[in-house]
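ok so I'm stuck.
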Amino acid sequence: MKTWLPVVLLILMCSISEATEPIAVSTPGKMGTIIFPDKSSFSTTLYGLRYVGQLKAKNKLPFLVLAGRGCDECDANTSIYIHSPSDGPMKSEDSQTRYSYPGQYKDNETDKLVEKNRCFIGKCIPGQREGVAWYMQWIDEKGKWQSGFYIAEIASDVVKAKYLTQPEAKLKETLSLVKQGICREIKGVTGYTEP
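replied:
not stuck anymore, here's the structure
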């Protein structure tokens, strides 16, 4: 086991030295760390940490868009977190806002598909600020599919999020912005709802 550790560290150091974006370092059983191109770091409260992107702020460090779980070996799904290191350490999962990770989710008891989400980061909605946008579909209490739209964007150096039942944006417009390279879709997963 010790023989491969120097190779992993060498690969990691080479990756960091050539990086223009932050890199997530995650070790099983430990909370992850973000390593910035200038070699500074930010410790998170997330397990299975992944760096998704960042959103610009005016008077502080950018907001990191991260994926992970606030607990290890638990039933929690991977979620998206938006946090600026300028705001201090991340809080625990029950105190930190978490957002749905994109994908298709089945009910953990019935195995029936109950939720479908697509998520985008960047300038993804015409006329809106850069942010993270979700196009969501879910089954309501009556068994009917509903759809909605949720966006989290940075305004006055804080995360402002809003939910709309009738999307102001159209998925077709967002996909056009993806083709233009100013928006990016976050790859979804297939999974189960949390118990």
